[in-house]
Amino acid sequence: MKPIHNISRASIAVASLALIATYFVPLWRIDLWAPQYPEGLVMKIWLSKLSGDVEIINGLNHYIGMAHIKEEMFPEFKLLPYAVGFYIVFGILTALLKNRKMLVSYFILIVLAGVVALYDFWKWGYEYGHNLSDDAPIKVPGMAYQPPLIGYKELLNFGAYSMPDVGGWVFVALGVVVVMVIIYEFYFLEKIFVKKTAIKSAILWAIISLGTISQSCTQTTEPIRYGKDACEFCKMTIVDKRYAAEIVTDKGKVFKFDDLSCMVKYMKANKLNESALAFLVVNDYSAPGELIDVKTAVFLSSKDFRSPMRGDVAAFSPKSFATANKAEFTQAKMLTWKEVVAIF
């Protein structure tokens, strides 16, 4: 799995360290307004304590039978500081280890923490607002005083607002950062990676294509594999190294023949313009297997040659012809290349 990008690591690290602030600021607040309290009352919930107008609120709640709010009724205060510490450490480790699986796990843990916290707060509010004392001075049949989980709610002549405070917004910011990092890592970077891969593939394809084109356009003769290659004209396997011939077109395409006559006939059958061909080569009779240019070759025609397809024309390089045993070819007729083309 690919490591987390440095930008993502920095974002996760900063957002995680920001949780340190939650030890010094409240997480949540509940505000109350009523005509007799025009400036409002507020109760703030911290990681390990309560603050604000808690005692005044307790005094008011006494009239409707609600329990006395005190820190001892919240066992969460003993756990929250450690829980936040865990999230700080986990976030830092995620950034240091660059591990994408840890990033996803961090996101899941944050979502889980948010869900559990809201449920726990709702459960406390439900019990607090419904379990009223029978000795309450004011009783309203069927009336419950559960505070709102998030938002506004009217409780008798009070208006109650429940919302995150600074520490709560730090948690929200952490969640937003983690979500953005996940989107960045698993969507944008993957998209860029796919795009880069496509570009690389296109470049590679272009290089290969150019190479193929270049190779296809290379004009050079090709060694004849005697005993394996077949004559392009008669389809017989090329065996005799004294009479084979080869054509190379201007596009680098190679055609091989087992007899000079086959090559000439192939040229005529396919109306190949000699001037448009890159190479026309034929075996040197005195140096079997060696290819020489037909334009410089010396040709001898004789039934005694007995070439594979009985074209019976042998080619010699000027050098080999000069040293050849002329007595062997006393019955042969010397031909030019033009005359060789004419007789087939």
Automatic annotation (TrEMBL):
Membrane is among the record's keywords: yes
InterPro entries assigned: N2O_reductase_NosL (IPR008719)
Ranges annotated as spanning the membrane: 12-30, 79-97, 104-122, 166-187
Recorded superkingdom: Bacteria
UniProt signal peptide: none
Entry keyword set: Membrane, Transmembrane, Transmembrane helix
Family annotation (SUPFAM superfamilies): NosL/MerB-like (SSF160387)
Pfam families: NosL
Keyword Transmembrane: yes
PANTHER family, per database record: HTH-TYPE TRANSCRIPTIONAL REPRESSOR YCNK
The protein, known as: Copper chaperone NosL
Source organism per UniProt: Runella rosea
